[in-house]
Amino acid sequence: MSSGGGWPKEPPASAAAGGGGQGNQHFYDQIVPPLFAGGKLPEGWQVHIAGPTETGWRIVNVVPSQEEFEAFSREQLGPVLQQLEGVTPELTFFPVYRLMAATSARS
Fold this sequence. Notes:
The chain is of the alpha+beta class. It has helices at 25-35, 66-82; strands spanning 14-20, 47-53, 56-63, 90-95. It has one domain (14-95): 2-Layer Sandwich (Alpha-Beta Plaits), CATH 3.30.70.100.
């Protein structure tokens, strides 16, 4: 398969996925306001998706790099989670091969 395929080259990105049995909508609604003031994503982030699964709550962020998300986690997410005892997200990372999005997002 040709790599040319007519697709525009997208900048490198990493996806940070977290969640599991500890999360739920109530927990999510507590941590989002201090992390995303005014409903705005941090600079360079492309998407934030959250929703329920059979095993809890799942959150996926497409960010510029794993390193940038780890810095966000240390500096912002960690302190917010410390206020909610016993919560430690299980994070996984994977490189984003392609991100396709509609022109308008659902909120």
